[in-house]
Amino acid sequence: MLAHTPVLLNEVIGFFDPKPGKKFIDATVGRAGHANQLVNGGAEVLGVDTDSEVVAELKSQSASRRTKIKAVVGNFGNLKSIAEENDFTDVDGILMDLGLGSHQLDDSERGFSFQKDGPLDMRFDAKSQNSNIKTAGSIVNFYAEKDLLRIFFQYGEEKRFGKRIVGAIMARRKLGSINTTGELFELIKQALPGQFRFRAGDTARKIFQALRIEVNDELGNLERGLQQAVSLLKSGGRLVVISFHSLEDRIVKQFFVREARDCVCPPSFPVCRCDARARLRILTKKPVMASGDEARTNSRARSAKLRAAEKI
Ligand SMILES: C[S@@+](CC[C@H](N)C(=O)[O-])C[C@H]1O[C@@H](n2cnc3c(N)ncnc32)[C@H](O)[C@@H]1O
């Protein structure tokens, strides 16, 4: 197993202050970069990941090192039932380190990277028993033109060339299916005006991001996961979320603001008529970003934004 460098590790540990007797859920445990540090502080950790391969690796490691990480396969969109099944309710902290890990990006068979040729898959849970049947390939080959446009525009934030790329996909479908990341990258490159082709990677990154979000319903799961996470925290427990693009960060920011308000009545109401009470206190007015040193040594940290809140 390759070494993994967790993003914003000191900051995460600073918010959680792990100690014996404390319980945490790492809802995106991956290769346990953060979870191991929580365990080293003496805490107990439930490590959840939707990728069954990474959970299997973690289980075999945990068995040999007898760490206190209890690793389970699951989607944080169902965090409440996963936590209840594993007796991890009323916890001191929940971490969500969103997106994909190096273990997924580096494996060409998973189809996440346009820099390595592989099948157009992109499912986080490709090897799980109940894995999603939607893949990047099924989207590229079968989605309606308007739906492709919508996801490239909304999830890829590709406003300039989205239409050209969708046009190229529709034309290519008439000749046969698009099966690999390499084929899709080449198609994206050829769809760009000549002077932009040397930077085709910038556009491909956005299109691949859009497909990954759609395949894994990443934004829907994030909304559901955040809601459920709050109900699993004890009073004073903390929720820490690290996101890597503006769509995720906006969801986290708006969720925290909503949950930190005592009243959710429309501004036009002269008096409050709702029973809403704030459930969270925001700990990060602005998102925490990686230090210059971390950003220099870990490219993934450059776009990371951490937001934290405490259960009231
Ligand atoms: C950035 S990595 C986590 C890295 C981890 N913090 C570490 O230090 O090793 C994100 C992980 O979240 C997992 N993941 C993505 N979406 C998920 C979801 N909805 N539920 C559970 N895990 C998810 C991915 O499979 C991946 O392993």
In short:
The protein has helices spanning 9-16, 33-40, 52-65, 79-85, 102-105, 136-142, 145-154, 162-173, 181-191, 200-216, 218-232, 246-259, 292-297; strands at residues 23-26, 44-49, 69-73, 91-97, 233-243, 280-282, 305-311. The chain is of the alpha/beta class and 312 residues long. It has two domains: 9-97 and 218-311, Rossmann fold; 111-216, Orthogonal Bundle (DNA polymerase, domain 1).
Report what the structure shows.
43% of the residues are buried. The protein is 43% helix and 14% strand. The chain is globular, with a radius of gyration of 21 Å. It contains 13 helices and 7 strands. The chain has helices at residues 9-16, 33-40, 52-65, 79-85, 102-105, 136-142, 145-154, 162-173, 181-191, 200-216, 218-232, 246-259, 292-297; strands at 23-26, 44-49, 69-73, 91-97, 233-243, 280-282, 305-311. It is of the alpha/beta class. The chain has a 7-stranded mixed sheet with strand order 3-2-1-4-5-7-6, sandwiched between helices. The two termini are 40 Å apart. Helix 7 (145-154) crosses helix 10 (200-216) and helix 11 (218-232) packs parallel to helix 12. Helix 2 links the parallel strand 1 and strand 2 (44-49). It folds into 2 domains: 9-97 and 218-311, Vaccinia Virus protein VP39 (Rossmann fold, 3-Layer(aba) Sandwich); 111-216, Orthogonal Bundle (DNA polymerase, domain 1). The protein binds S-adenosylmethionine. S-adenosylmethionine binds next to helix 2 and strand 2. It is an enzyme of class 2 (transferase). It comes from Candidatus Doudnabacteria bacterium RIFCSPHIGHO2_01_FULL_46_14.
